[in-house]
Amino acid sequence: MSKVLIVDDEPHLRLLYETELRRAGYETMTASNAQQGLEFVETMSPDLVVLDIRMAGMDGIEALQRILERDNSIPVILNTAFSSYRDNYLTWAADAYVTKSADVTELLETVHGLLHQGLKAEN
Amino acid sequence: MNEGQNSRAGAAELLAAGFRQSDMSLILVQGTGTVVTASRGAEVLLGCEPEQLAGQYLAQRFSDPGALRRLLADQKTGTVGRVQLEARRQDGKLIPVEVSCSRLETGEAPDAYFMIRVSDIRERQHEDELRAARLAKLTLLNQVSEALYGARLNLDQILQAILVCMTAGQGLRFNRAFLLLVDPSTNSLQGRMAIGPSNADEAARIWQDLADQSSDLFGMVTQYDQSVRQTDVAVNEIVRHMSIPMDDEANIMIRIMGQGHVRRIAGDVDQPGVETLRHWLGCHEFAIAPMSTRRGPVGVIVADNAISGTTITDLDLEFLQMFANQSAGAIENSRLHSELSRRLADLHAAHRKQREDQETLLKMERLSVMGETSAIVAHELRNPLVAIGGFARSLTRSIDAGDPNRVAATIIVEEVARMERIIHDLLDFIRPPKMLRTAMVVDEVVAQVVQKFQPRAQEAEVELVSDLQAENLTVSMNPGEIQQVLQNFLVNALQALDGPGRVEVRSRGVDGGVEVTVADNGPGFEPELVEKLQMPFFSTKPTGSGLGLTICAQIVKAHGGVLRAENRADGGAEFSFILPRHKPEEES
Hints:
By secondary structure, chain A is α/β, with parallel strands linked by helices. In chain A, about 45% of the residues lie in helices and about 20% in strands. Chain B has helices at about 5-20, 40-45, 65-75, 120-150, 155-165, 200-215, 215-230, 235-240, 250-260, 275-280, 315-400, 405-430, 440-460, 480-495, 550-560; strands spanning about 25-30, 35-40, 80-90, 95-105, 115-120, 175-185, 190-195, 245, 265, 285-295, 295-305, 440, 460-470, 475, 500-510, 515-520, 560-565, 575-580.
């Protein structure tokens, strides 16, 4: 079962993504800030990271750089309320970009797509 | 005979001889008016042979014989009477004279003799006439000055006034006058305007007309337009040919302008430009007066009497020069005035623009602050909305279909979706336009959108057809944005149809641009809504944010194009935009 790490400083959103991803059959873990997220990447080896951008303390873009420095094979989805980040080249290193929405279909499809692609690549 | 008698007789003889030879015109007459003897001077004045006057009745020599008789009768001893008459010379010619008379007393015949002195006053009279003429002209110049400076005339009107004064009967009385002005843009002396009839009959009629209509010069100047306009075609044709480069310093007109003195050109004048001028004017004698001010040369006035053939006198020249000086002042005054008005207008315009710019800047600043604030609010709302909507979705899945709570949860899901749309559009609206542009073939971009939209149209039972005729025309665009506009048009059309119908997408080249149109055969919109359609937050749909078309208009405008929304004559609505064609140099 693939492990998905959710990094978001909004507790309700963490709970929502956790619920939906579990329902879709993934194992999940959540971090409430970027620092904690990085630690979990070190210690718990997630298969994919759903990363919020605007967070107190370290932001998602910096966290993305650090994750990629450590292991650039982990797929990272930037998940944000700010659709304008899509045009920012700093976010281009991410594997996908999803605008936060109450309809999590796009997020689930993206997670599935990236993990499926990864599996295919491994095979 | 004693010695004393001898010497007295000798003195009388000497006196008689001296009287006879005198240059002064003296005539000795009897009380009856019969000439006893006359001096040589008198004989010369009256054109007579020596002694021819003796015995003649002097009164006959004057235009008014009674006047001399009265003069003699009025004289008392020792007084000198004077009268001005005209004397008839031997050849019949009349000359103006002053006749003075004194009575001579002798012991034997107390009132028998008179000494008459006849003085030639031709010269004095001429001087008087000149003085009167000068006075008249000075009065005129004063009038002209008032006419030129007093009234608010534009340059053409001033030139016209100058020309009228040059030729009017009450004015300088030239037959024709031509005005040439220095044109700094071409550095040449350029013929500007002329006045004058082409023949004597016309001349007489014009000035009579003007004199009948107006009593003073200023009146004539203002009447000029109606009376003379049509008659001076010929002279204006001449003046238009006159053009002399300012650096042609040998040319007569340029020279005179440099020297600053009026000149009469008559007879043989060996100077460049004279023959050309004679050829232009068609007459031999003319005057050239320079016009200049302290700031430099203004132009010249050329005047002639080609119709009457009258010689141009020194007095004419004197006044022409005075008038030219005054005209130069008036022309410069008018030019400075219009220059001043122009600069003032420029200043006003600059000031107005500055104020407008300032207002625009303030407005933009306000809008920018509003935009930033809205963006922050919109983003902050998004997170809680995602949570609300997300869990509501979750709930709908876990509640049975028959449970009324499921309806409530569904409503939450739908309303949150609507709020998310509003936030999405709002953020789109306040986001600064993307400046990245690429030259794209319009028809390809349009075809892509149509193809992508086809499944949605089919689902709504709408026949979506395209007629793309823009050939290979390209537009410098952000393709994503233009596709967004088109998609918005298509969504609008589908919503307007609200069921089966037909939507047509067309493209064609127009003057300098490409037009893309989306037309539906739905109900169209209320005509009074046309203007409101592009206003932010205006929507005809209960679930719309009211920003869709506003964003489209913004995108099209940022591309230098225009967006149009209108009802079709045969029913349905039509949305279109025109984008300017791509110009290759934009890429550099």
